[in-house]
Amino acid sequence: MTDLGFQLHSLHAVDDSLHDVVRRVGEAPFDGVEFAGLDDADPAELDDTLDDAGLAAAGAHVGLDALESDVRGVADTYAALGCRAITVPWLDPEHFDSVDAVEAAADRLTAVGDALDDRGFDLHYHNHDQEFVDLDGEPALDVLLDAVDGVGLELDLGWAGAAGHDPLAVLDDHADRVDLVHLKDYDETTGKPTAVGTGDLDVEAAVELVRDHEFDWLVYEAEGRPDTYETLAHATDVVEQYW
């Protein structure tokens, strides 16, 4: 069964403490949260806040450089939160300029993935649109997934659509590499993400496909909005309509 998560970066403009933000998400119809940094919060205290809010740690976004410099520290931090899924959220477009560049990035991801696996974690990679540049007739994302070993894909539906691809077809094609999915919408005209339910994503079909594949988490994320509690209210409306 798929659980419903909320990416906390969607509320990055909120001035409240991370504890208060987590409590507010706990009042909404979500099963867990995906972290994008801890804002110096103590992991043990934050774990208590998660418990009180009735939320699980769906995962955490951590930069590749941070993982390479202190994979043990990252693992210790998120283990204290009961989080076992770490996702690299971004690699610069230069990493997808050529097959050689993609393969070099894949080597780095594989090495970090192996180090995390030794500590009981799974590593995933989250796409934007640069991963869909054409390399020898196929998207750079496909080249990356072929080259990387033991690393999953957290597919962002909105960015896949913004890149000009059918996000549901991409998700279906790579389902065996996916445990987490980012629910995000997109505007075909602008080539940019937009609030879920206001763009060209077939949200109902996306939810149905996620449930059919029984992915672990469907994670709501917002970009380009005020990123205040209004974002959480909109997410709640989406959940009540489609989930």
Task: Write up what this structure looks like.
The protein is an alpha/beta fold. Helix content is 41%, strand content 21%. It is built from 10 helices and 12 strands. The strands form 3 sheets. An 8-stranded parallel beta barrel has the order 1-2-3-4-5-8-9-12, surrounded by 4 helices. A two-stranded antiparallel sheet has the order 6-7. The protein has a two-stranded antiparallel sheet with strand order 10-11. α1 runs parallel beside α2 and α5 packs across α6 (140-147). The relative contact order is 0.16. The model has no long low-confidence stretch (mean pLDDT 97).
What is the strand and helix layout of this fold?
Elements: E1 3-7, H1 18-26, E2 32-35, H2 43-53, E3 56-61, H3 64-69, H4 71-79, E4 85-88, H5 99-117, E5 122-126, E6 134-135, E7 138-139, H6 140-147, E8 151-156, H7 157-162, H8 167-173, E9 178-183, E10 185-187, E11 192-194, H9 203-213, E12 217-220, H10 229-242
Parallel strand pairs: 1-2, 1-12, 2-3, 3-4, 4-5, 5-8, 8-9, 9-12
Antiparallel strand pairs: 6-7, 10-11
